[in-house]
Write a structure and sequence with these properties.
- With 75 residues, the protein is an alpha+beta fold.
- It has 3 helices and 2 strands; from the N terminus they run H-E-H-E-H.
- The longest helix has 14 residues.
Length: 75
């Protein structure tokens, strides 16, 4: 949706799990958005290895809360 709404911006989506990354790649192929990059990786090490001169205008973290029952472990 972000890539579709702003075709002038490069949108990078990073997904850690293989199943969701595969689904993401299939959906990307169906929508044919040239400004969308799909990455199958863990985002923290992936960001760490980027060139430090690269900057992002915006970052969204879409992540389910893994510890719903433990409020001390919630994001």
């Amino acid at each position: 949706l972000l890539a579709k709404e702003d075709p002038e911006k490069l949108v990078i989506g990073v997904e850690r799990t293989k199943e969701k990354a595969d689904k993401f790649l299939r959906r990307k192929a169906n929508h044919k958005l040239e400004n969308l990059v799909a990455v199958h990786a863990d985002v923290v090490p992936w960001l760490w290895h980027l060139d430090h001169k690269i900057h992002f205008d915006k970052i969204w973290i879409l992540y389910p809360n893994p510890e719903l029952g433990n409020k001390n472990q919630r994001w």
